[in-house]
Write a structure and sequence with these properties.
- The protein has one domain: Cyclic phosphodiesterase (Cyclic Phosphodiesterase, Chain: A, Alpha-Beta Complex), CATH 3.90.1140.10.
- A 5-stranded mixed beta sheet has the order 4-3-1-9-10, with helices on one face.
- Helix content is about 25%, strand content about 30%.
- It has 6 helices and 10 strands; from the N terminus they run ααβαβββαββαβαβββ.
- The relative contact order is 0.27.
């Protein structure tokens, strides 16, 4: 069984290796010719978190390899579902009918699942993204486990988080000392709390713009 790294281990690894990647949905290698991706997400209403996020955004903005997420793109990805295509041929492809079926299964299994609150704090880094850590007493993991079990989906590795920016440099490039220091200044920084009162299956048009609006395919309310 592969051991999953926690937040502190992710930061220590990045600080030690300083390796960057070209992260995000605009990466041609990741897209592999696909036009639309689907994900199971928890929307994040960014405006009331703006004050807590501003210092983090200001710290990251000067670096040319940082692509900051705008408010309308803020979301917490629970499960990447794959690429939407008319006729699936690969494991990472699914049809609209399959996506509708996943939405119905998720809706059935989340009947009675309670709404809950997430506490966002602390800037952290993967090689391809800067993110804010999410803490909630295990409810996000329980939510993800519930959907995976009912829908027959593989659970992704790694802790859940709110992506704040993509890091987009040549794979293997080294992060400068100034970037590591900028992140470390906000390793203990409270951003704020937000409620998760619904989850959604969303579609992302990969060719329209760097940060298009997410199209809601299915909306599943949690119990308030």
């Amino acid at each position: 069984m592969v051991r999953v790294e926690g937040y502190a281990e992710i930061w220590e690894r990045f600080k030690r290796e300083r390796r960057l990647e070209f992260g995000g949905h605009t990466d041609p290698e990741w897209r592999d010719g696909h036009a639309v991706s689907a994900s199971f997400v928890a929307p994040v209403e960014a405006p009331h978190l703006r004050e807590g996020l501003k210092p983090l955004r200001d710290a990251l903005r000067p670096f040319p390899f940082v692509s900051l997420h705008p408010d309308h793109f803020m979301h917490l990805t629970l499960l990447p579902l794959g690429f939407l295509v008319p006729e699936p041929r690969a494991e990472n492809e699914l049809s609209r009918g399959q996506l509708e079926d996943l939405g119905e299964r998720a809706r059935e299994t989340l009947v009675g699942f309670p709404a809950f609150e997430v506490d966002l704090a602390n800037l952290n880094v993967f090689p391809g993204a800067a993110f804010v850590e999410a803490r909630d007493g295990g409810m996000l993991e329980k939510l993800r486990d519930t959907v995976c079990g009912r829908c027959g989906l593989d659970k992704p590795s790694g802790p859940l988080h709110l992506t704040l920016a993509y890091l987009q440099d040549a794979d293997g490039a080294l992060a400068p000392d100034e970037f590591v220091a900028a992140v470390e200044r906000y390793r203990n920084w409270p951003v704020g709390k937000f409620p998760i009162e619904r989850v959604e299956i969303t579609l992302l048009n990969l060719g329209s713009s760097p940060y298009p609006d997410l199209e809601t395919f299915a909306r599943i309310p949690l119990v308030g």
